[in-house]
Each structure stands twice: as structure tokens, then as C-alpha cells.
Design a protein that fits this description.
Layout (H helix, E strand, L loop, with lengths): L2 H24 L11 E4 L7 E5 L3 E4 L2 E4 L8 E8 L14 E3 L4 E4 L5 E11 L4 E13 L4 E8 L2 E9 L6 E4 L13 E8 L6 E7 L3 E3 L21 H5 L4 E7 L6 E6 L4 E5 L12 E2 L3 E2 L26 E5 L4 E5 L7 E2 L2 E2 L11 E7 L6 E7 L6 E9 L2 E10 L9 E4 L5 E5 L3 E6 L7 E7 L4 E7 L19 E7 L10 E7 L9 E9 L2 E7 L5
Parallel strand pairs: 2-9, 24-28
Antiparallel strand pairs: 1-4, 3-7, 5-6, 5-8, 8-9, 10-11, 10-37, 11-12, 13-14, 14-15, 16-17, 17-18, 19-20, 21-22, 22-23, 25-26, 26-27, 27-28, 29-30, 30-31, 31-32, 33-34, 34-35, 35-36
Length: 533
């Protein structure tokens, strides 16, 4: 039985009770009394009220007209009930009471969906109740949008860049956790985990105290969302007080894996499932020699399979051994990584003697993985390009990056489809033209105000490509976030978020697509693609 039907029954019963009482009193009694008549105005029944979950405060001020009693003598109840609510599951009407005041001031804390609201006016002297209904549609800002982790004097402040009340323009919703009574620590990284079916997906926040999933349209975070629970009973021993350096969803097309590298350089793997647990670390070369992994994973997003009936998948995941300074590969058919073996032309030695500072993968053109390594004793950077093919790795390019201000390079970013690497200094961004050549052409493509310092420079891959219109396009835009160098101690809103269109030609400048300021001190950004299902 739907609650809408329940209200109809309640109304009919109330009317019947009044009728029977009047008939009973009428027997032998011809002294007639005036009946109190109440009308309710100020509630819009022609249109649907619109609200954004955890952002909108629904305000309705009804006007009560009564023929016999003052409005102060009445009792008021506001209920907001989901259209699909079902009493067969044990729910009661009292569960949906949101206020007992005459004027409704309700910070909407509801899931996406359609609701029926009821305003009840009760005369406690007679027990008679008058009811006015209305309709409410709730949209969750948490469904899609940019989550921005900010550092507020050691506290994690979470800002959201999502659509406005009309679903058109991006606007800022600051400090979603300002009333949260949970100390997750100061922010380090943001990740999004998911698969391309949209069957599971949620952001992860890594802090100085641990790593936590952010779930639901209310952006819930807490002890119950700690990553350690994905390790079963071993979680307390493995990841306690240790945040994650990197999380990857590898091979999301039909074969979904999560790779986790923690602060100790340990590598863990499990399937993309909320039922799967991480087990033992795989940090042993050929299952024999332990190593500490750099916090990066090179993966393939290819659809190719040798046997569609058996779904045989054998693309390498690339890791880097920080101890022996060498590239490693792990294929799906092996339990542990081994020293990388490459087919075709040998452009570089897989034992590099250098420190890895960046590694990422193309998304939708080929299986290119690009790594940037630095000489330990000098500000010299080298680019390594590798193609992941079925059951093999082929070297694609190698060379020294000889660009301006390389000694001050802070961030690197690989375009999802162009052969273009970007690096950022304090307030400038440069583009490196990747090719099968010894020398990489470098061009300055962005110069920001000297009063700003770049805090984020990245491309954000989208795992689920069937989201709202325009969502996929964000994957090909360069995210550049900055913080003011000098700001008032009383002004925590020092961050600016920007998206840039990347031209095809390497010598062209970036074009600003979107800019929003007033954020907190930005640490990292990730796009929240869809709700966990």
C-alpha cells in the first residue's frame, strides 16, 4: 500500500467520524452550533517545489484562515513522504515528520527522487485535522561534479563544484563537511574508483591519518568507510595510520581490478567488487626478492581479448621498483611482477638507475604508458614511453626533457589521447610533444598571475562514459587549480579551480573553459561520476 493511499483512507475515516458524531448528537437535540472552517493558503499546489539535497533549505509559510479559532491554538505537522514509500515494509507516517512548526524551514536531507508533502493543521480541542498537500522533487548535487579537497589548518574541507538549481551552470558549494563530527585528518590525495558499467563507484580520500571512501549523496565519510575494511581482518595490521599513495582502477573494460599502493610501497590487488577483499602484497620480483614500489601504476584500458568465449585477458600492469630502480611488469597470468621484457626496438634499459616521479596511461587511443624519471643527483628528467599490447610490452619513445625551468617542475600530466605531456612549475604550464625521437619539443602554453601558486595540474579520466551530457568532455580538459600566495589570515577561500581546453597542435596555448574561485586551500581534485549503486 502506498502512503498516498494511506492518506486517502485516513481522510475518509476522519470525514466518516465527523459525520457519525453529528448524526449521534442530532438525536433529540436541535440546538445547532457553528462548525469551525479552516482554509490553508500559501502552499503552491500548481507547481513542483525543487530542492537540492544537503544544499537547499525548503521554506514554506502557510496562511491559516479560521472561522472560530486563532492560528496559535492549532498544532502543526509537516511530513515529506517518498512517492514510492510502502507500508508493507514496516514504515510509519511518523518517520516522515520534518517539522512541527507553523512555518516550514527544512534543510533538505533527502535522496534524489519525487516526494509528496503534507501540511496538517489540528484543532486539539476537537481533534479535527485539515490537510494540504504539495509536491517536491529532490536532486542530489552528489550525483556528479568536481570534489575538491582543501586543507583548512589541518582539517579536510570538502568543496563541491556542481550544477545550479536549474541544472545549467556550475556553481560552488563550499565546505560540505563543516558540521561533520569526524576527524579524518588533513588531505593528501583524492581518487575515484569505479567500473565502466556504473555498477560501483565512489571517491576515496587519502589523508595523513588513513584512507576513506566518500559514499552517498550526503558525502558520508567515517570510520565505517575506512579502506582497511577492504582488507578484512588484516586491515588493522596493514593500513592503520597509513594513507594510500595511489589507487588505480585497472582494466575497467569487463575486467575490473583495483590496485592500491600504500605509503610503505606495498602493492595490493583485488577485483572491482564491494564483496572482494585485498589479500597479501605482491612486492616480490618473481616471488623471491622484495621491493618498494613507486606510487604509480601503468595500465591498459584495451577491449582486446584473444578468446571472447573465455575472456582471456593478459595485458601487463607496469610498476617501478624504487629499490633497484627498474621497470617491472605483472601479467594477469602471473602472481608476482618480474623485470620488464620488451619486444621490438630497444630504446632504453629497463634498469634505469633513476627515480620515478610520474607515470600514467592513455585512455582511448592506444595502450601508451608514459613515465617520467629524474636523475637522483641533478634536475634532469627523462621520458619513457611504452606500448602495452597483448602479453607484451613494446618500447615507444625515450628522451631527455629539455624544457624551461625543469628544475622547478612540480606536477606532470598525460593527455588521455594526444601524445602530449604537460608539466607545471609554480605558475606556468609547459607542453612536451611526445614522439618516437630523442628530443622532445617543449612549449609554454599557460602563464598565470605570479600571485598564484599551482596546486593541481592533472587530467581526470572518466571510468563510466554514459553519464550526463558533457561529463566525458571533462576528461580531455586540463585541470589547473591554484592558491593565492598571500592572503588574509581571516580569508580561508584562497583557491581557484580552472579547466582548460587542450588544442591539437602543440604550439597553441591552452584555452580557458571554466573558472571558479572562492574555494579553500586546494590540495587535490577528482570528478565524482555517479552514485554508488
Amino acid at each position: 500500500m502506498k502512503f498516498r493511499s494511506l492518506y486517502k483512507i485516513a481522510a475518509v475515516c476522519s470525514a466518516a467520524a465527523l459525520f457519525l458524531t453529528a448524526c449521534y448528537s442530532d438525536k433529540g437535540n436541535y440546538d445547532y452550533h457553528d462548525i469551525n472552517e479552516v482554509t490553508i493558503e500559501g502552499i503552491d499546489r500548481e507547481n513542483v517545489y525543487q530542492a537540492y539535497a544537503y544544499q537547499t533549505t525548503l521554506k514554506i509559510s502557510p496562511v491559516i484562515h479560521s472561522t472560530m479559532s486563532e492560528a496559535d491554538n492549532y498544532e502543526y505537522t509537516w511530513r515529506i513522504i517518498p512517492r514510492n514509500a510502502d507500508t508493507s515494509k514496516g514504515a510509519t507516517l511518523d518517520e516522515f515528520i520534518v517539522s512541527r512548526e507553523k512555518d516550514l524551514v527544512y534543510p533538505v536531507q533527502l535522496s534524489d527522487g519525487d516526494y509528496t508533502g503534507f501540511f496538517e493543521v489540528k484543532d486539539p480541542a476537537t481533534g479535527v485535522t485539515w490537510i494540504e498537500d504539495f509536491y517536491l522533487h529532490v536532486t542530489s548535487q552528489g550525483s556528479n561534479g568536481w570534489l575538491v579537497a582543501c586543507d583548512d589548518n589541518g582539517r579536510t574541507r570538502l568543496d563541491l563544484i556542481g550544477k545550479d538549481s536549474e541544472g545549467k551552470e556550475d556553481v560552488l558549494y563550499p565546505d560540505l563537511w563543516k558540521s561533520l563530527d569526524f576527524d579524518m585528518g588533513s588531505p593528501k590525495r583524492l581518487f575515484f574508483l569505479g567500473d565502466n558499467y556504473g555498477t560501483i563507484g565512489f571517491p576515496f580520500l587519502a589523508t595523513d591519518k588513513g584512507s576513506f571512501a566518500i559514499t552517498g549523496s550526503n558525502f558520508h565519510i567515517g570510520e565505517d568507510t575506512d579502506l582497511k575494511w577492504y582488507f578484512g581482518t588484516a586491515g588493522d595490521q596493514i593500513l592503520i595510520e597509513s594513507s594510500v599513495n595511489d589507487i588505480y582502477t585497472a582494466s575497467p573494460n569487463y575486467v575490473g581490478y583495483w590496485w592500491v599502493i600504500n605509503n610503505e610501497g606495498e602493492i595490493y590487488k583485488t577485483e572491482c567488487s564491494d564483496q572482494a577483499f585485498f589479500s597479501y602484497p605482491i612486492n616480490m620480483v618473481n616471488g623471491e626478492t622484495t621491493f618498494k614500489a613507486a606510487p604509480f601504476v601503468g595500465i591498459s584500458y584495451s577491449y582486446e581479448y584473444t578468446d571472447p568465449e573465455t575472456w582471456n585477458y593478459n595485458y601487463a600492469a607496469i610498476f617501478y621498483d624504487s629499490d633497484s630502480k627498474q621497470f617491472l611488469t605483472k601479467y594477469d597470468t602471473s602472481n608476482y611482477p618480474s623485470v620488464m621484457q620488451c619486444s621490438g626496438n630497444q630504446l632504453f634499459d629497463v634498469v634505469t638507475g633513476r627515480d620515478m616521479v610520474f607515470m600514467d596511461s592513455h585512455y582511448d587511443v592506444d595502450e601508451l604508458v608514459v613515465a617520467v624519471l629524474k636523475e637522483p643527483s641533478s634536475p634532469e628528467y627523462y621520458l619513457y614511453g611504452m606500448l602495452l599490447k597483448f602479453a607484451e610490452v613494446e618500447q615507444f619513445c625515450y628522451g631527455k626533457i629539455e624544457g624551461p625551468d625543469m628544475a622547478n617542475a612540480k606536477f606532470f600530466a598525460l593527455h588521455p589521447s594526444f601524445n602530449a605531456l604537460f608539466y607545471a612549475t609554480e605558475n606556468k604550464v609547459y607542453r612536451v610533444d611526445i614522439g618516437n625521437q630523442a628530443t622532445m619539443n617543449v612549449t609554454e602554453v599557460l602563464a598565470l598571475d605570479p600571485g598564484e601558486e599551482i596546486a593541481v595540474c592533472k587530467f581526470n579520466k572518466m571510468l563510466y562514459l554514459y553519464g550526463p551530457e558533457g561529463m566525458k568532455d571533462n576528461m580531455y580538459k586540463l585541470v589547473v587549480c591554484t592558491n593565492k600566495k598571500i592572503a588574509s589570515p581571516d580569508d580561508p577561500n584562497v583557491g581557484t579551480f580552472r579547466l582548460y581546453e587542450v588544442p591539437e597542435f602543440a604550439t597553441d596555448k591552452l584555452t580557458l573553459s571554466e573558472e571558479i574561485d572562492g574555494l579553500g586551500k586546494i590540495v587535490d581534485v577528482v570528478y565524482k561520476e555517479y552514485e554508488e549503486l
